[in-house]
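Protein of interest.
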Amino acid sequence: MILVTGGTGLVGAQLLYDLTLAGKKVRALRRNTSTDNILNMVFSEKLFLKSNIEWVEGNVTDVHDVLEAMQGIEEVYHCAAKVSFHSSEYKQIMKVNVEGTANMVNMAMEAGVKKFCHVSSIAALGRVEENKVMNEQVMWKSSKHNSMYAVSKYSGEREVWRAMEEGLNAVIVSPAIIIGAGDWKTGSSSMFRQVYKGMKYYSHGVNGFVDARDVTYAMRMLMEKNISGQRYIISAENRTYQEIFNMIADSFHKPRPTIKVNGTLSELGWRAEAMRSFFLNRIPFITKETARNSQNKWFYTSEKIIKALGNFFTPLQKAVEDTSALFLQFQGQAEKKS
């Protein structure tokens, strides 16, 4: 039996689809407030597979929920995480991403789990000099460029490394910015919503991007192989935000962004968004962290995972087109009704 956390999220939903399609016995831990919106998108062509998932209600921050979910489990995929760049959510980010991960690895050892896969992030690598290609050997350094989310993922990853020192058979994947079916009001999926609604601005900042299906493929293959105590960057291509926005705009048949955002305009933008969000009582789309990082150029290499598994990456153009089609089918319709 396999346990998956974060099964209603971007990575977890895709992983559940892959595992059930392969006929695996799967249990998934979910919060009582979670919805099936992302699952319904991912499983849309084979919705009947959802009935093969054994759902357990609970939270990774509750050690008793975690231990109960671990009973009879041989493999664990820990996908649950809180993705946020808003200072007001700092305590919750740390609680889920650090304390929750500590609970998972501790209870995995307690339950005698045979293998554990932790979904980290390229953010946990920290930020080094711009224009320098980062690999798995990069050492974390305190930096003004490290977001709260990055700090939380780095701290959570340390819990996994600690557990491996204590005997846990585990592997870590560090995905780049993920393109896939998600909640298009939050996280990386919000890029699609903004472009769909008519995004005018772009930046020449660079980051790594990857298809969600490639992330889950790598996870499953690493769990099947005799690989342990390793971390792998999962990044298909390094692209400018402008290139990604243009791909999304073209796939939606929307106008491409035409106004380049420089450092000054970026600073004004996040401040204006903060003020508007305050008066509208909503979470801002742009924060100080996201605005400033959008100007930076970060490059990543996936040589290590390619050496282990071969080159399995989906071209970003196809990843964007496939994701846009799903959003048009599901989220676009909901947006028009709202």
